[in-house]
Amino acid sequence: MKNLKNNIIEYIENEFEKNIISNSLIENNDKLVVAVSGGPDSMCLLDLLFRLKPLFENNYHIYYDLVVAHVNHMIRIESEDEKVYVQNFCEEREIPFYYLKENVPALSKKLKLSEETCGRKIRYDFFDQVLKDTNAQKIVTAHNANDDVETIFLNLFRGCGLNGLTGMSVQYKNIIRPLITVEKKDIMQYNIMKNLNPCIDVTNFQEINRRNKIRNSLIPQIEKEYNSNIINSILRMKEVLREDEDFLNRYTYSLVDECILEYDHTIQFDFSKILKEHVSIKKRAIREIIRRKCFNLDGISNIHILDILDLLEHNIKGKKYIIGNKFTIEIIKKNIAIIF
User: Fold this and answer.
1) Which fold has domain 2-228?
2) Environment class of residue 322 by beta-carbon count within 10 Å: exposed (0-12), middle (13-18) or buried (19+)?
3) What is the CA radius of gyration of the chain?
């Protein structure tokens, strides 16, 4: 048992260290806001960040500080106990503790959002506020390999493109996920071996939303009937697709850079080179131009992209494509368009 314990702990520590160093997730003098619910994943994350500080200092000369952010969604009666548990853990280690109590069920009805969506918005708004109040640089979350695979399945069921099948990234803007390559079963074992005694959210085992159904029913069924190693199989697929996605993105960015003639509040571009490309690159280039103008692709579907492509292919001066108050694309002369 001792060897197993040492191997599991060493394995997770190595994955954690590798993810941080190889992706430059933490830099010297960073202050990190750690999102901690009190569950197994976030307690594993917090314990690693606290215990391995000397390792990063001695081996990589990376010094960092921690603050913890904890949210009580007022959904379960156990939430108060979870707050006390996390707070005590932090006080024993002199880690600053920030707390928010928000009635998510009531607020979700007021905002006409699902409790899941409302809760996520509340959490990340709070994490951002703590980040600003403490002059921190990054938010650290405990997303693991199972969360990643569940996200890939969710995206697949929605009818995603290639990007959706690449799941979660190890870093998204200022959010870092150093446990993204570690499976849930190993995290659970880590908690036992380190005597963390985390809080358990029983709603995670209830089929109250699509993610829970994937976690508790679909994946176990696949493991039983088709592939006992489905998590690793999906993750291997993800890495292959991520390489393809990276190449296609780099190619598209370079193409769009060549096509842009003026870039200020509006973007004027020569689309003749775009139209010579494969349809996949044509659509990617149009999305990238929209993203550069609007900074996101919210509300932009494949139908919109195809309509814009049709506009460019007809190449008629004065013709426009308007999407509400988001943007307008107009052909101003042969092969030249403007987005404003």
Assistant:
1) Rossmann fold (3.40.50)
2) exposed
3) 23
If we measure between CA atoms, which residue out of 71, 66, 55 comes closest to residue 18?
55
- The CATH number given to 239-339 is 1.20.59.20
Instruction: Locate all alpha helices (DSSP H) within the chain, ordered by sequence.
Output: 2-22, 40-51, 53-60, 79-92, 104-111, 115-133, 145-158, 184-193, 210-213, 219-225, 230-259, 272-275, 279-294, 302-314
Query: One-letter amino acid identity for 43?
Result: M
- Give tens-digit pLDDT for 269-308: 999 999 999 999 999 999 999 999 999 998 898 999 999 9
Strand 138-140 with 175-176, pairing: parallel
User: How far, in Å, CA of 24 to CA of 21, rounded?
Assistant: 5
| DSSP code per residue over 205-248 | GS--SHHHHIIIIIHHHHHHHT-TTHHHHHHHHHHHHHHHHHHH
Q: How far apart are CA 311 and CA 329, in angstroms?
A: 9
Domain boundaries, the chain: 2-228, 239-339
Q: How many CA atoms lie within 13 A of 230 on its CB side?
A: 19
Give backbone dihedrals phi and psi of 278, rounded to 5 degrees, phi first: -60, 150
pTM of the model: 0.87
Kindly report, residue by residue over 40-85, the tens digit of the pLDDT. 999 999 999 999 999 999 999 999 999 999 999 998 888 899 999 9
Over residues 117-134, the pLDDT tens digits come to: 899 999 999 999 999 999
Q: Which residues contact 202 (CB under 8 A, 6 or more apart)?
A: 76, 78
Say how many residues make up the chain.
Answer: 340
